[in-house]
Amino acid sequence: MTPAEPAWVARFRAARVSLPDWADDAPERCLFASNATGTFELYTWDRTTGQTRQATSRAEGTTDGTLSPDGAWLWWFDDNAGDELGVWRKQPFEGGEPVEAAPGVPVGYDAGCAVGRTLAVVAVSDDDGTSVHVVRPDGTNLLYASEHDADVTALSKDDRLVLLEHSEHGDSRHRALRVLTVDGEVVADLWDGPGLGLHGVDFSPDGSTVLALHEKGGRTEPLLWRLADGAVERPGVPLEGDLGADFTVDGRELVVVAEARGRASLHRVALDGAVLEDLVGGEGTVTAATPRPDGTVEYSWSSAAVPAVIRSTSGAVVLTPPGPAAPPSVPVEDVVVDGPGGPVHALVARPEGAGPFPTVFLVHGGPTWHDSDAFQADRAAWVDLGCAVVQVNYRGSTGYGAAWRDAIEGRPGLTELEDLAAVREWAVSSGLASTCVLTGGSWGGYLTLLGLGTQPGLWAAGVAAVPVADYVAAYEDEMEPLRAFDRSLFGGSPTELPELYARCSPLTYVDQVRAPVLVLAGANDPRCPIRQIENWLAAAASHGTQVEVYRYDAGHGSLVVEERIRQMRAELSFVARHLGLEPPA
User: How far, in Å, CA of 6 to CA of 178, rounded?
Assistant: First the structure.
């Protein structure tokens, strides 16, 4: 009899499905992503027959796609081995060879794609900025171009109006909105001013109103922008946290997801802001939701202990992945610690037994993101190793208001590490932690390397996946939208603010690193490019730092399940070896 695979491996291998999207005019035709074959790919689903079909098949995987309103075509973004630089392709819903979907649109980074009934609007970015193109059957024309970061977020149902987010005022973290006709006429502009961002969501079904998210109240919440007279309504929704919203299919109500303290609930809300019905609440997290034409709402939900499920407010399970379900894990508990910038919220997962435990500080990326009470295979793997896991929603995280999110501006990295240090002090003094490891990916990898250099006495080991390691070189090599993000975050470029970039760069402190470090790097990563990581590795080697490196042939992450398992095994084995733990099975 073949022995059962370890639970941590089974969690990664278990098939998962994303919340299905559906075609506006053919709601029985749906699109979702799944790792059922071992690589995340796009699948079509015909609800009338129940048939699902794998639509894409690439060695590196595919997750970015959309359906045409009639459901006849699947559009998907095709890059090169995870480098995120590519073009849109399309193929029939029923299957067939893909063809170029947007001829005449240059190769670039995806900045939004809205497929209409008679045309499509496709935006791409490159080193020169952002360009937006209208793709018609008889040709493609340029609609908008700017040196600044921008995205297309919606196309009206009559294919007449385009909703654009832009940063022409110079701040890509706090954007403005513009509505254009597909022929290039500016219909309306909206900006709330410096430090106040707007995020476009969609047009109402009749195209008369834009639903957006604003921050004037100190958090993200809905806004209705009437295009006929420019009137702006900001209905106060009496729900806690940062709010996301979407129109119901008839446009008469809103479906709102409220994110607060690491959890997200789902609600039906009137256009005047009144809460009509609490749909999903309590423990766990709603990670995505979509209203359906029959008035129900479908959503993806999970908790730290319970793997994700796709449900409907009708009570039905919408879509079940094939094969065995992922093994459950342990719940998380909430901890609030006094930090230098205010109370810091953290989520803690404990293994069985009495502490203190070796403790992994698993740091989220972004930085405009947050850890939540949602199922995570990597968190569960650390618990299975015998470690407590602490996840800190440091200043810079979302879900705690705009001021908390923006508190890192002008001093990124060092600010977040102050919050991590405060929670670490609690973890040790409370008896939870015997020794502490710092680990994370992307921005979490950046904070890991920066923390190992600036707080060398706090951390026994570090695991940094796809990190920013040399900030100046990272800025030089990264994709332009991230350069724009960095300019907004720091207040300028490395040329304008050399001392600040140096003060916030892990490379500056590499000679102070005392703990052993594992670095994971993607060869084709456009977000945290390989050269700047190699600069840090070379400097660390010159100072005799204990460094191990895991390189893989993909981009900012891998969509291949077995590759992700290899990476997790490398992380677990590294920490187990240096902390004297039993190595993972």
Answer: 52
Query: Buried b vs exposed e over 111-132: b needs ≥16 C-beta within 10 Å?
Result: bbbbbbeebbbbbbbbeebbbb
Q: Rounded to the nearest 10 degrees, how much is the dihedral formed by the CA atoms of 540, 542, 546, 549?
A: 60
**Residue 416 three-state SS:** helix
> Do residues 26 and 47 lie in contact, with contact meaning Cβ atoms separated by under 8 Å?
no
Q: What is the pLDDT of residues 150-169, one digit of tens each?
A: 999 999 999 999 999 999 99
**CB 126, CB 148: distance < 8 Å:** no
Burial of 30 (0-12, 13-18, 19+ CB in 10 A): buried
CA distance 464 to 516: 11
Q: Which pair of structure tokens corresponds to residue 410?
A: 């002008």
What pLDDT does residue 4 have? 83
- What gap in Å lies between CA 393 and CA 422, rounded to an integer? 12
Cα 286 to chain centroid distance, Å, stands at 14
- Counting every residue written for the chain, the total comes to 585
Multiple choice CATH, 333-579, 3.90.700.10, 3.40.50.1820, 3.40.190.10, 3.30.565.10: 3.40.50.1820
**pTM for this model (two decimals):** 0.97
> What number is the average pLDDT over the span 92-103?
97
* 274 Cβ neighbours under 8 A, 6+ residues apart: none
Using pLDDT thresholds of 50, 70 and 90, give the confidence band for residue 65.
very high
Report, as an integer, the average pLDDT of 106-130.
97
- Non-local CB neighbours of 110 within 8 Å, separated by 6+ positions: 64, 77, 84, 86, 123, 124
Q: Is 384 left (phi over 0), alpha (psi -120 to 50) or beta?
A: alpha
Confidence class of residue 180 from pLDDT cuts 50, 70 and 90?
very high
d(CA 118, CA 134): 11
Q: Let me know if 495 is exposed, middle or buried by CB neighbors in 10 A (0-12, 13-18, 19+).
A: exposed
For residue 510, the model assigns a pLDDT of 98
pLDDT at 3 over 80: no
**Could you write out the three-class secondary structure of 27-73?**
EEEEEEEECCCCECEEEEEECCCCEEEECCCCCCCCCCEEECCCCCE
Instruction: Report d(CA 79, CA 86) in Å as an integer.
Output: 4
Does 1 score more than 80 pLDDT? no
Compute the distance between CA of residue 577 and CA of residue 370 in angstroms, rounded to an integer: 29
The rounded distance, in Å, linking the Cα atoms of 199 and 215 is 9
Burial class (CB in 10 A: 0-12, 13-18, 19+), 189: middle
Q: Looking at the predicted structure, is the pLDDT value of residue 486 above 50?
A: yes
- Render pLDDT for 187-246 as a digit per residue (tens, 0 to 9): 999 999 999 999 999 999 999 999 999 999 999 999 999 999 999 999 999 999 999 999
Tokens representing 428 are: 């040790």
Going by C-alpha positions, the residue among 136, 145, 146, 126 that lies closest to residue 101 is 136
